[in-house]
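Long-time lurker. I teach an intro course on protein structure, and each term I like to show students one example going from raw sequence to a predicted 3D structure in token notation. This year I'd like something fresh instead of my usual example. Would anyone be willing to generate the tokens for the chain below so I can use it in lecture? Attribution to the forum is fine with me.
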Amino acid sequence: MTLLVEPALDLVDRLRGALGAEAVLADEKSRRYYANDIFWQPGIEPAAILLPQTREEAAAGIRLATAAGLSVVPRGGGMSYTKGYLPDRVSAVVIDARRLNRIVEVNAADLYITVEAGCTWEQVAAALEGTGLRTAYWGPLSGHVATVGGALSQNSAFFGSAAHGTVAEAVLGVTVVLADGSLVTTGSGGRIGTKPFTREGGPDLTGLFLGDNGALGFKVAATLRLMRRPEAVGFISFGFRSIRDMAAAQIEMAPLKVVAEGFGIDRTKVEHSASVNKLMDGVRTLGQVARAGGGLVAGLKDAVQVAAAGTAFLKEHAFTLHLVVEARNAAELETSMAAVRGIGRRYGSEIENTVPKVMRSKPFGPPRGMLGRDGERWVPIHAVFPLSAALEVCDANDAFYATRRDFMERHGIVYSVMTMTVGTEFFLEPAFYWQDEITDLHARTLGEDVVRPWRDRPANETTRAAVAELRRATQELYAGLGGVSWQAARDYPFREVLQPPTLALLESVKRALDPRGLMNPGALGLASTPTRTA
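-- Reply from a regular --
Happy to contribute to a lecture. Here you go:
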């Protein structure tokens, strides 16, 4: 338990006076809950948690906090595992964006949507239902709870990303609260009397606030570019003997720009991932697949095939790749599927397309994968590389983990790996499973009924520390191979890998926008002077 200092106690009273008691949490249970993310625990408890409902409330709260000398830490859906929303001092206020969840405007004529930063990706998709439109990147696998602001702050990729890149490629402008409480809008929406229809027209100020982890400002809204929803969709999967074969197929498919999204996984992921195992979820899944079919008869036929296939066939292959292909019409889809099928068969064998089909039938379910199949704790690590480096990176990754096999066995750590292509980048994500306590974050996100069988599992700080050691060594390996990690936060190497003039420029921008270093201090390795009061 951390005790609050006098300025923090005074601030809580003033925040409640300005925003209302329901918008400010300062009880011990809430402060303890907001001191943990998916992996790092326990952290430093903040002085208070602010839950604004309007951008003006967010601005007022940040202005009061920084004027009192307290830092401000942004939080979205809570799916981070890189210390992105964890305070580095007790004199901090966490700003939870989830009540900033309005759809501001859907402009079908000019092809953009403006949403508040606390909207989940599931809410964005629902707002566009029936319009024939969507954003190019349209959410992470955790889009049931992950927010637009969180994705913009830490960067994000999955649905739509193989063809269209990360979430940053879809952004036209953002509205942010700066450290002094001022509201700033970037892109054409920041001009007088102009719609937010373009990002261009001067320096790209929007880019400053993408991937910044809230170190430069607190996002309250964003405008995203829309596109016509592809009319034809196909599903295809392949099995491979090695990650090298799978990666070779992926890097050859990437330039075609016909795969919307896809991922490759090893057999261990199939055995331990709750997400993969939940794909076959009985009658409910059959109904989902039936509704996703081209018609009732076709849908029911697909459902029967999915149920018959199950997931057992995945274990017959060391690695499997699962792809969604999109096209403007059926003829184009046929051509694209033939091209993808030809590449996949050169390196592996075609298998049942159960996984991508069911994944698309209900893209935004509860993020069950944040725990393993049997309640194991889970945390990943990642980097992206040029396509030309993919095979070398896979070889280096295999060699690295071969030397750590005894270490992982000794600590009871299970290793698995996933690969994707994101635009013209190769994405590599190892993940680790181990026995450890279930936190309130897991319970609140997944539901007490889900975690009840493992709720009494004791903390395993020794293995958790071993996982942290393994992750850090992996980060250093990938940085040494020229990799780039998106969700830098307070976890990945960042300032250490920047060229000195580049770091100096970033620090100058930080000082200009946040001269006292109170916007998420420590994020990106910037302006951190942590203090702890116990």
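Some talking points for your students: The chain has a mean pLDDT of 92. DSSP finds 20 helices and 18 strands in the chain.
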